[in-house]
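haha ok so turns out i had the wrong file open the whole time. this is the CORRECT one, sorry everyone. sequence first:
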Amino acid sequence: MASEAWRHTDILRQIRNHAVRDYYNSDYNDRPSEYDQNQTLTDWNNRWTVSADPSQHAAQQTIGQIHSDLETLKEQRKEGYNVGRLKWQRCR
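then structure:
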């Protein structure tokens, strides 16, 4: 049971990394919204069947957390803090 939970956590980490990569690789003025990235989950599930193992809701929450983190970075940048970008999460 615990190994299955760790496997799902790892798959969600991979989904997060793909979404972050796609976000930063897109044109600055045409960055995907949370809605756009949630739509790509279906494509990813078709391409990598393992990404369909965690619930769709959990995958959408992962995408939502990325966009929440991006908003936090934007606000901190606006307040004068020197902030970077979201980083790739390594396997644990």
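The chain has a mean pLDDT of 91.
again sry for the mixup
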